[in-house]
Amino acid sequence: MDTALTAVSVLFIALSWAPLLPSSHWLVRVWEFPRLQIAAIISLLLAGHAFNATYYAQFNILTMVIIAGLTVSLIYQIVWIIPYTPLYKREVKRVDTESSCQKLSVLSSNVYMPNNDFRKLISHVRNKQPDFLVTLESNEKWQKGISEIESDYPYRKFCPLENLYGMHLYSKIPFEEVSLRFLIEDDVPSMRVKIKLNERDITLYFLHPKPPSPTENTYAKPRDVELTLVGEEIAKTEGPIVVAGDLNDVAWSPTTRKFKKISGLLDPREGRGFFNTFHAKYPLVKWPLDHVFHSEHFALVNIEKLEGVGSDHYPLYTELALTNHDGK
Q: Which of 3, 136, 171, 274 is the most buried (most CB within 10 A)?
């Protein structure tokens, strides 16, 4: 047992630090995702070493080194994920639902293209009545399957694809401008929309880059470059801004943190919770892949992970309040 405990401990110490390797290969970058799970396993391993030391007097230099490595690795994981717990300062203030500020709401849902459970998503739309609905992984089947909501959403932009990267945008607010863009990869769309709300120009971005994985992109570089490119564009854009979608990246990764820093946007989840939208069907595989970021012009009214719609992702609903011109 001591040998097995030592071997597993060394493995999880290595996995904790693997993302620091200078590679964007999925085998390296994938370990940025399960930091919460790794932290939980490391805690159990530390408890196992404490048990051995207490009851079997198995405490030597190697054990001390491993315990030190596990402890440092646990602290390292906690540093990454703690901003998304109630222990951390909230980055975005909340306003009451009865606030007189103009509201703007977005429902983002990766529907999982093979899924046919249209009614559950329609039910969420009927219940929440978001100003914007963006569906990801949606194809012509999904376009037809939820077509009954189109009467409530007269402003639309569709990009049905059969490659798991289709995107459909439904809006109650007229578009001043709307553009379908393929920023990095020819088969991966994104959308940029401009609207007016209370005579103020607002820009919205809807994104769904490919993840680093054995079945998608072997390397994370295309996703990283897209997020950096959009972040740099946002930094040059004036006025209120909202970004939503499945970024195929966790909130605490270096890539998303870089995007947030470059763009200057805020994350309403900080200090509130993980809002793990993936995986909807595996209880132990949970992390936040679906995101919403916004400029300082907004305060938070509500952010909510909704019930599943038959997809491997939960929908994410966010309602924001437009405050003042300078964002203070």
A: 136
